[in-house]
Amino acid sequence: MTKKIVLAYSGGLDTSVAIPWLIDKGYEVIAVVLDVGQGGKDLEAIQKKGLQVGAVQSIVVDGKEEFADKYVAPVIKANALYEGAYPLVSALSRPLIIDKLVDIAHENGADAIAHGSTGKGNDQVRFEAAIHALDPDLAIEAPIRDFHWSREEEIDYAKDHNVPVPIGKQSPYSIDANLWGRANEAGILEDPWNVASDDAWGMTVAPEEAPDEATLLDLTFEKGLPVALNGEKMTLANLIVKLNKIAGENGIGRIDKIENRLVGIKSREVYEAPAAAVIMAAHKDLEDLTLERDVAHYKPLLEQKVTDLIYNALWITPLFDALQAFIDHTQAVVNGTVKMKLYKGQAVAIARQSEENSLYNKNLATYTAADSFDQVAAGGFIKLWSLPSMVFEQVNHVHSVEKK
């Protein structure tokens, strides 16, 4: 009996040559493309190519709304930026891809799942950790990693097995994109001293070429998530698409970073995340207005842990669920509107309001005659605040100045 395998298929060289290789190994291949808003690709053509090179089924799954609502949303609430910069573009789509692939494997009685990751990257871990968590009985095939294929060997194998290889100049880059942004590596980017050339960017204009007049826009949040742009309500996925265009035209969201990969090597990555840059800045600004002081100071500690869990393929863990429950609870009060100024690569919050949850009290903050703060109470508060250290010094004289 022929075994069935579900392949995470992108239509690129790696996953295209994987199809005849898996067939040679005795599998019937079900190729699955997940649409997470990668844009710029003819998914129908990719679907047909999967059948052309030997897959018994080639499926395109529309996952854009689910990707936004279940995977991007937690990142927004957590202000999640890996190593302070990377908005977890690729890391977010992997658990969703595997979730869909496992479902399709179960529906079709498949025995295994395959992916086209190499042995140097993070994706192999993200794919396989999710497979092990969701169904450890499924076998895993990773031909590109396990057989150490070079690019030249892949092309030769493709020609021998009638797999179409693009003619002409191929992009030197390895690019992964979705709604939340675009990740780019390889080519001249492998030397960190090389300046990223113009062709390395695909979603943004150079900041110096952006309009000379600033763009102002209002982002409205409910429970920590953007729900309206300039007063127009829309789904999170559609809002991200629209904001990617507006922010990209203003040169916003470019990131050029040396990052520490999960597997332990350093990698030079070039990212573009226009919508993410604007949304994250606005969200944090609204939190500053609505979160109580101790919550605002403690939440970043957990945010860093959540970010590391996502990056390190630990999305499906009890700890992630527990931390996310805490973060979700904090977001109940993050409601309001932030006015953002977009100008030549910068996204800055310039005004904000929250009618129901603002903790800013003008009468307490003002230095005018309208001041309602009890100045007299401050002296007593300071005595009580410093009481523990005062008593300690009286007993131990660690820092006390000797009286003359």
Describe this structure in words.
42% of the residues lie in helices and 20% in strands. The chain has 14 helices and 14 strands. A five-stranded parallel beta sheet has the order 3-2-1-4-5, with helices on both faces. The longest helix is centred in the first third of the chain and has 20 residues, at 89-108. This is Argininosuccinate synthase. It is an enzyme of class 6 (ligase).
Walk me through the topology.
Layout: E1 3-8, H1 13-24, E2 27-35, H2 43-52, E3 57-62, H3 64-77, H4 89-108, E4 112-114, H5 123-134, E5 139-141, H6 143-146, H7 151-160, E6 174-178, E7 181-185, E8 215-222, E9 225-229, E10 232-233, H8 236-249, E11 254-260, E12 266-272, H9 274-290, H10 293-311, H11 318-330, E13 336-343, E14 346-353, H12 362-365, H13 375-385, H14 387-396
Parallel strand pairs: 1-2, 1-4, 2-3, 4-5
Antiparallel strand pairs: 6-7, 7-12, 8-9, 8-13, 9-10, 11-12, 13-14
Feature tags:
20% strand, single chain, alpha/beta, Arginosuc_syn_C, Rossmann fold, five-stranded antiparallel beta sheet, Argininosuccinate synthetase, chain A, domain 2, five-stranded parallel beta sheet, 3 domains, 404 residues
